[in-house]
């Protein structure tokens, strides 16, 4: 079964304005899919339907072959990981942040997640290492590092799909490259669906879904949609 499938999904908020119109797509169990489209196209709403924060008016949303309408919410929560744009950190230490969705993670799991997020060197240099308290300022983590830590945290949950809302802020090229690596690593383990704001992410994606006015305008690889460059 695909990691996520939308089949004829339509959705309106309470005021009745259609937000998604007959949207169908499916995501294989691995790989990075970029969802792009102008503001108001329905990208965030698509995420909210996958998480069942909203329910479709028509059509079905499936995760790992289960129609999520009938899935116990705890099960859905374990199948779907969400990395928010600003990736606010939880109070506590880096270790607690990494393991809150999987308290059974062992040292090897944690080390691997840190490596995938390219944070192993950074954490090794902190006097308290994994037990560094993040506090309000995130222990000096940059925006890109915060989002990578959030990716590592989500990977430790071992979800079927990771929903990632890419940071819109300008990132330096090293940070951007590290984020790109972290997304690629994550996409080797599960499906990653990213609301993409950066051209580099769109280029990196295995497939692109173009949403416009609540409809799927196109789905394909970068080359299929834009041509080689
Ligand atoms: P995107 O993420 O692509 O910018 P959204 O999914 O956030 O698009 O929004 C799609 C449309 O739904 C927009 O027209 C937006 O104004 C509307 N919308 C979003 N959230 C709500 C809400 N809670 N109530 C009513 N309309 C909403
Ligand atoms: P805005 O358009 O101002 O970003 P949103 O309504 O999109 O506001 O989001 C409000 C809050 O809910 C944000 O903190 C955001 O991170 C969170 N949020 C938005 N979408 C999701 C989602 N799909 N899953 C979990 N949290 C979400």
From TrEMBL:
Entry's localization field: Cell inner membrane
Domain ABC transporter: 4-229
Domain of life: Bacteria
Entry similarity comment: Belongs to the ABC transporter superfamily. Siderophore-Fe(3+) uptake transporter (SIUT) (TC 3.A.1.21) family.
Designated name of the protein: ABC transporter ATP-binding protein
Protein's organism: Streptomyces radicis
Full-length numbering of the shown residues: 337 to 565 of 583
